[in-house]
Amino acid sequence: MASSQHSHAELKIARFEPPKNLNVVTFGCLFFGLITVILGFILNPQRLWTSYLTSFFYFACLAVGAMFFIAFNHAAKAGWSASIRRFAEAMTSYIPVMLVTSFVLILGFKKLYIWSDADQLHALGGGKLTYLNPTFVAVRLILFALGCLVFKSLIVGNSIKQDTTGEHSLTYKNLTYSIGFIAFFAIFFTLFSFDLIMSLLPTWYSTIFGIYCFAGAIQSTMAVLAIMIVWLKKSPWLSGYVTEEHQHDVAKFLKGFTIFWAYIAFSQFMLIWYANIPEETEFYIIRSLNGWMAISFSLLIFRFIVPFLVLLPRGAKRNDTILVSISILVLVMQYVDLYWLVYPNFFDGIPQFGGWEIGIFCGFAGLFLMTMIQFLKKNNLVAI
Fold first, then answer.
1. Is 235 left (phi over 0), alpha (psi -120 to 50) or beta?
2. Which of 63, 188, 242, 323 is 20 to 30 A from 227, alpha carbon to alpha carbon?
3. Residue 180, φ and ψ in degrees, nearest 5
4. Distance between CA atoms of 188 and 119, rounded to whole angstroms?
């Protein structure tokens, strides 16, 4: 894993001052998103809520994926990631926004989910009658966001506190909290994925759908971390602490979760295809009609084959241009993947993409960037 050969004279941490262009982009995204939301409520509520769900889930995955990265490194007592942990901690600063936007999403249940209609819910029958009760779903959604916020406050709070106190006991506390978060995350992220995405087609089910969403979340989280490392390692605010070795290690995680995502995606498809049960095959049938087949194949090519082959050589993981390009591709395909999961359930299964989707995504991106910028401005770029 990563090691540093820098002398103490080469080490430097300065206060982060966001470039003017970054602030312009952030506030531009926020303004565009706000205008889109207002117009969406008036002109096209259905497109508003479908695009809201897609972008909400996208950025929630980045925030909780960063929490998982922090937690598994604490649990493994991994020293190599100490220099880049603060970047992941910055991503978790979005979690309070995730909680607020969860309450907003609940307002859109009736536009998104068949089971929000009492008559449709009773038609499902069985255990789904209880599990997909709108109140029960809303409670699970808020519990997940609140739980993530509590663990974020404990783990990231201790990390920031340790910058000034230097107490070793905080590291041991974070080990315990991290194990607790991993257990909480394993259960509630699975329910989060089932409730918000899989239940869009409530007659369909996959027992590994939660793992499928988890693989995509961590892959995209690694992509964001890779971009931040490339940007900050040679920045005027940081020197010596973040090296090519850290970049290489995160790139290996990115490649690893690229393979893991493909493995889970293939396993889900293969088992459903082999069993050939109507309740299961309908998911893939509607994604092979009305132009969706091209999008389905694009996931195979651009989410797995291209990143996997490009990141195979050691030199590619250490090449800034290649790594950033692949990371951007992964982030684009994460959105395409969520779009592929959400949109075939609406608009008679015909792909819809335009200003509504771009505007809502920009709004969420602005919130994500704003919370990260504020966190990095207030705290050291490297955990001390």
1. beta
2. 188
3. -60, -40
4. 27
* Amino acid identity, position 106: I
Measured distance CA(269)–CA(206) in Å, rounded: 10
**Which tokens is 10 given?**
């080469």
Cβ neighbours of 291 (radius 10 Å): 10
Q: What is the pLDDT of residues 221-276, one digit of tens each?
A: 999 999 999 999 888 888 889 999 999 999 999 999 999 999 999 999 999 999 99
CB 357 within 8 Å of CB 40: no
| Per-residue pLDDT tens digits for 127-179 | 888 899 999 999 999 999 999 999 999 999 999 999 999 899 999 999 999 99
**Where are the extended beta strands (E) located within the chain?**
12-13, 238-239
Arithmetic mean of pLDDT over the chain: 93
| pLDDT confidence bin for 384, thresholds 50/70/90 | confident
Dihedral sign, Cα of residue 115, residue 118, residue 124, residue 126: positive
Amino acid symbol at 54? T
Name the helix (H) or strand (E) containing 148. Answer: helix 134-165
Model pTM above 0.85: yes
The answer to whether 181 and 146 have CB atoms below 8 angstroms apart is: no
C-alpha span between 185 and 206 (Å, rounded): 19
